Amino acid sequence: MSELLKALRGLPPKTKKVHTVTIEGQSLVVTLEKKLEVMKHGEDAYTWKSPTEIVLKPKPKPKARYPILKKATKGYVFQDGDIHWPNAVVEGGEAWLIE
After folding, report:
1. Mind giving me the DSSP string for 27-53?
2. How far apart are CA 91 and CA 75, in angstroms?
3. Which of 37, 99, 35 is nearest to 68 (CA)?
4. Four-point Cα dihedral 34, 39, 43, 44, nearest 10
5. Average pLDDT per run of 10 along the chain, which is 99 residues long?
6. Strand partners, 22
7. Which pLDDT does position 48 carry in this prediction?
8. How does 86-97 read in b/e, with b if 16+ C-beta sit within 10 Å?
9. Cα separation of 37 and 55, whole Å?
10. CA 14, chain centre distance (Å)
11. What is the largest CA-CA distance in the chain?
12. Which pLDDT score, from 0 to 100, does residue 52 have?
């Protein structure tokens, strides 16, 4: 039993875990919480703010614009107000327009 204790005492001390992230080809030592955050969003979603600080890149705003149903000079007349059943094209009807 004493040989086991001697062997355990002879083990090297535990080293502290170092967490690193690689952003744009450069590595940075960070805390565990920051490492988990970077893993959650992905390394491509971060950029350098200063030589020792990283921040999330701003999210791109959507560029798609969708049409909405509005009164127009020439448009559709719908049966019972159901947009899936247009009856005719008339003056002063409703049309799908992009604002």
Report:
1. EEEE-HHHHHHHHHH-GGGEEEEETTE
2. 6
3. 99
4. -130
5. 87 90 93 95 94 91 89 91 89 88
6. 27
7. 94
8. eeeeeeebbeee
9. 11
10. 37
11. 101
12. 87
Strands 19-23 and 26-30: antiparallel
- Among residues 67, 62, 65, 27, the alpha carbon closest in space to that of 43 is found at 27
Enter the tokens of residue 64: 């798609």
Residue 89 near residue 75, CB atoms below 8 Å: yes
Mind giving me the DSSP string for 10-23? TSPPPPPP-EEEEE
Structure confidence at residue 42 (pLDDT): 94
pTM of the predicted structure, to 2 decimals: 0.54
In contact, 78 and 94? CB cutoff 8 Å: yes
Question: Residue for token digits 């009856």?
Answer: 87
Tell me the two tokens of residue 47.
Answer: 């950029």
Distance (Å, rounded) from C-alpha 87 to C-alpha 42?
51
Two structure tokens written together for 51: 């030589």
